[in-house]
Amino acid sequence: MTRRPFAYLTLTVLAVYALGPMLVFVLASLKTPSEISENPLGLPGEFRWENFATAWADANMGAGLVNSAIIAVSTAAGVCVISGCAAYALGRLDLPKPGLFILYLLVASSLPIQLFLVPLLSLWTKLGLYDSRFGLIVIYWAIYSPFATLLIRSFLLAVPREYEAAARLDGAGELRLFIRIVFPLIWPGVLTAGLIAGLQAYNEFLLAVTFIQDSESLPVSLSLYSFQQGFSPDWALVSAAGLIMVLPPLALFLALQRRFVEGYTSSGMSG
């Protein structure tokens, strides 16, 4: 009991530390540029809600959000399929030296993507995948699937093999076994892996700015960057555009946070 006030104080300080910059960010989006320069931490004299409409139009945020949604959803779906099948193979099939595959996944998930930018750029140009959303999505599949495979495999190891043995006695093949028996038992892990991959793809900048040049295919992160760099920045409008970018993944996470946290912690990979 004596430690509880200290715990509450610590949590309050951490909450202020985490939410304070976000509050300043929101207030800046409702100010005029002169108010930001004169008093960046203060309240706006008048809430300028029209900043959001102006930023939406000037930064082309609508097209950026659509492109980011396509990229994020496609990345999440592809990662779930690839990593789900790979995790099932690692956890259930009789592979030679499965430890080597796990080591490979650990190494692959730890290497920085910057090491491969130049060869990837050359290869993607030859394959005709440069400056296309599909080409970017394929790269995201490759870099996000190793961790997702390890995550889903940790769920799979907790599933008793007796369920699969009974299904095999009934004549179920591996594909039917995975879809009808295993997947319903590990879907929290698949959902968690998909959410992580989708959010990473939504927020990713380096690969997007390298492999996407067409203005009609820019994800929202590049739309915001172009808007900020295009002229002398109006920080009120830049803040409004940034808040527009933040709101969709924030709403998604708040809606699915319980399943996300439960899935991540129950996997055994949270430490």
Automatic annotation (TrEMBL):
Coiled coil: none annotated. Residues 65-256 form the ABC transmembrane type-1 domain. Gene3D superfamilies: MetI-like. CDD domains: TM_PBP2. GO terms for biological process: transmembrane transport. Pfam families: BPD_transp_1. It comes from the Bacteria. The keyword Calcium does not apply. PROSITE patterns: ABC_TM1. InterPro entries: MetI-like, MetI-like_sf. One of its GO terms (cellular component) is plasma membrane. Its main location: membrane. It is a multi-pass membrane protein. PANTHER family: ABC TRANSPORTER PERMEASE PROTEIN MG189-RELATED (PTHR43744:SF12), ABC TRANSPORTER PERMEASE PROTEIN MG189-RELATED-RELATED (PTHR43744). Belongs to the binding-protein-dependent transport system permease family. This is Sugar ABC transporter permease. It comes from Acrocarpospora pleiomorpha. The lineage of its organism: Bacteria, Bacillati, Actinomycetota, Actinomycetes, Streptosporangiales.
